Protein 1
Amino acid sequence: MQVSEFHDSRTCIALRPDPTRRAGPAAARYTASRKQQTTNREPAAAARFTVVRSLSMSASTFTLSAEIRDYLLRTTVRECDTLAALRTETARLPQARMQISPEQGQLLTLLVSLCGATRAIEIGTFTGYSAICIARGLAPGGSLLACDRSAEWTDIARRYWQRAGLDDRITLRLAPALETLATLTDGPQRSTFDFAFIDADKQNYTAYYEQTLSLLRPGGLLAVDNALWSGRILEPERSDEETLAIRELNQQVGSDPRVTCSLVPIGDGLLLVRKNAD
Ligand SMILES: C[S@@+](CC[C@H](N)C(=O)[O-])C[C@H]1O[C@@H](n2cnc3c(N)ncnc32)[C@H](O)[C@@H]1O
């Protein structure tokens, strides 16, 4: 039986095939037993990791075939029980597809930790999945400012942040994001953030881009979700406000001398933008 291990700042996990499930790619499922836990914030039952299964209402990586995505999920994506439970609860909402995919969430955690980020900001929180992924990657003492205008959806987020033991790392700002950003860009917080994630109303994407760029320190990283817009970005007949705004931002970022970028075809397309040193 193959056993793999991985480490993050909070847990040390051993992954094992679950003998109670049918063999074969479609049925393969791996459960994780906890060998050690460095925090007592997350209840024991919630500290287990499970290799991800798709939920029909859940977001995925649309550029991948079902088989390749299944392989990717089985082999390298590990989702803790708290995130899995949040994904299941969110899947009951009609807006469930707004949530980022598990493979994208794992990438966010990795990117945040590679940046050594202590200060992060998120525009568009919904039920809190991406916020957990970002907060998990922060260096000790780090904090995430999560911006959203929906009390209903962020009430769910708060419950899961507490369950994940991350509520002391995440501050929620409940207001239209442009207002929140205006208060930050006008003050001493300019150029102080290490990481930013934009995943809110697409019409405001170019405004969010300019404002978050001014909040990032040189060398800081911005990730923008939905950059491929399920392929609608390429459909010439699409001229709705959202599609136009995403096209405009991709064009702008691609030729912006202030940044270095890469559009990664994961999830619905993740545009990664590093703010260059002056
Ligand atoms: C795509 S969802 C975010 C998904 C989230 N990142 C996740 O992975 O679960 C978009 C969110 O942006 C919020 N939003 C939309 N327009 C907004 C605005 N003008 N100001 C603040 N939040 C806004 C919505 O309430 C919604 O929760």
Protein 2
Amino acid sequence: MTNCQHCQKPMKPIAANLLCASCRENYWALIRQLGHVQLPALSSIMLKQAHIGATGHAPSRGSAPMPIDTHAQALITDSEAWLAEQAGKIRSAYAGYGWRKAWLAILSNRHTILDMPTAADDYAALEHISRRNEAALTPEDELIILGTCPTCRHQLTGTPDAESVTCQHCRSEWAAPAIKAARDQRLWQVQITGTPSDAAKELKRYGLTISRNLVSQWLRRGKLHATPTEHKRQYVFNLGELAALLDCHR
Ligand SMILES: [Zn+2]
Ligand SMILES: [Zn+2]
């Protein structure tokens, strides 16, 4: 037995094959997605931004996918470089291809790509690129605050079910559950003044879903120790307490 060089699971040794069957499949799916979905979508963001810049109009803040703190151009450059590198390994002349031709060359050389001695490293590099692309292509209102980057203290955002997160500022990569756990600890130091509905909205930014009715209910039953203010229905809420109550409630 030998181990898959990507997921480390034991696998039947197949000649010159460093990736197990399921990693080969996932790797191939990422390659297809890069040229089929991600690069065209990133390019269209670039075009829109160029157009917005040219006409001087403010960018629309609708639900259209817009990169956050990430320049689509940088993501496109990294994606294209990855494709050119792989295409160049098939035949050195392919390294000079534009991304679409390089991608098509890769697609028509499936076995060469999957059996490449560098496949495990190439797959890991592509995973990283693909995750960053995915994050940039996720509409802003689907993103939540995952926490704070331990290295540079910038805010980390991502999708609610993200397993890992890359800091858009310092490019370091973190496991999302640990970042979230640290965030929930820090929520105990965060207070907001407002109505139960304001508290529910604030928690939603962290991906914690709670109805304002439930917040009101907890207040009435004395489960939640929010401090009333002189204004009607306005309280000082501790977000850590709310998050902890929500955790018990689920
Ligand atoms: Zn594997
Ligand atoms: Zn950072």
Protein 3
Amino acid sequence: MTDQTQFIKVPHVVIVGGGFGGLSAARALRKAPVSATLVDRRNHHLFQPLLYQVATAALSPADITAPIRGILRKQRATEVRMAEVQGFDLPARRVHLTSGEALAYDYLIVATGATHAYFGHPEWEPVAPGLKTVEDATEIRRRFLLAFEAAEGERDPEKRAALLTFVVVGAGPTGVELAGSMAEIARHSMIRDFRNINPGSARVVLVEGGPRVLSAYDEKLSAYAARALTRIGVEVRTGAIVTGIDAEGVSIGEERIPARNVVWAAGVTASPLGKALGVPTDRVGRVMIRPDLSIPGHPEVFVIGDLASLEGPGGRPLPGVAQVANQQGVHAANNIRRLIRGEPQTSFRYVDKGSMATIGRRAAVMEAGRVKMKGWFAWVAWLVIHVFFLVGFRNRILVMTQWAWNYLTWQRGARLITGETGAELAPRGKPIGTPEGHSEPMSEGRPASRDAALAAAQGQTAPSDGEGAGWMGGDRSQAGNRE
Ligand SMILES: Cc1cc2nc3c(=O)[nH]c(=O)nc-3n(C[C@H](O)[C@H](O)[C@H](O)COP(=O)(O)OP(=O)(O)OC[C@H]3O[C@@H](n4cnc5c(N)ncnc54)[C@H](O)[C@@H]3O)c2cc1C
């Protein structure tokens, strides 16, 4: 094990986590009389609020990430280490890495965030990925886009319908944003791209156990959000508690929704490192911190962001949002300066600047104190604020350019399916148009005239609308219901 104590001349601060909290702490220590080491198991900072846009092919991962080393390039007293932390020795003031190395500190800030929680059903995780990392987002994107490809080659109408059914579990901001975006891609971006299916007939179901979507928002805003979602084609199911998820679908009590694509946006739990600190945690594993953000018995150790549990106004825990993490990062850094100067630490006061969520490409809800906004103006405010808070000038330019392109063309620039796909693509039957191939075309709800043109191009005869049970398949009514 390497002991770094011998190299430390000024107090040394170790920051674990390069997310919103860790990064804002590191930046706030820029001019402090300390040296610092920021440790993250990833080499990049991720702007999670736009992760759903990567999952739905609007943006690429590089648009919403920035290398931590690059962000802190000009802070010469700050070292960046890409490493995984596995535990702490608080009495000896050491941070233990999985590599076996130990980092010594005088002050420690832990900001390792949160991860998905499946409410005691870990078996749901492989079939219902959550959205937290770049890998999660590209996996969700992969599954979403692959479902259309597999449906294009699927001859069985029931299997095709299951492939084109997307269930999002949890109607908080992430679930609402994902579902809205999925419905719009299917109905607009991909509508002309397939020959055997109608992507617009895809079913996007947003399932929420509670009585309303966006339950943290004002009731009127959440009712507006539900209406706006329905308008863009999302089937909103509130008061529906998911009782089972497997590779073939989702169960809500007795009801079964056949669906090959499920996304989990329902629950989070704190990073396991919270428990490794050996101090009390709440029921989701968040560390119960003191008002100055330190942990009981260790004024030199701070826990911030999603990993921390601290009561806000009204006795409710502060929400797990970027603003809290950012403000706590700055506050922890300021308290470290005070400790160095021998001054007492101060309590953290959260300044709530409001919250917002988008619903598709033209609507959003926004709540800031007594100010409540919805619709197009809220959506424009959402765009401006998110671009403003993105880390890095390059990212801001890239994201604005992509958004302008997406808005004007309805197209999604990042429709990339990566990785091996062979096993996931449904085996094709006989090619359409082969004499003995029961050439039962596979379109769903597509206008007959377009089908006729396509069929002619493929050397087939398209049945008329009236005789189109086989042509339109059993999904036609479903398509009608959706639209
Ligand atoms: C999809 C999504 C959308 C969101 N949208 C919004 C929004 O619109 N507005 C908003 O305010 N908030 C939003 N949030 C919440 C916001 O992103 C979080 O509150 C914020 O990221 C918390 O910051 P943090 O620093 O505590 O943790 P994070 O930003 O999650 O950072 C944790 C860091 O710790 C690192 N780490 C974890 N474990 C280890 C380890 N063992 N060793 C080393 N490094 C480790 C991780 O790699 C990561 O870089 C969203 C979150 C998600 C997932």
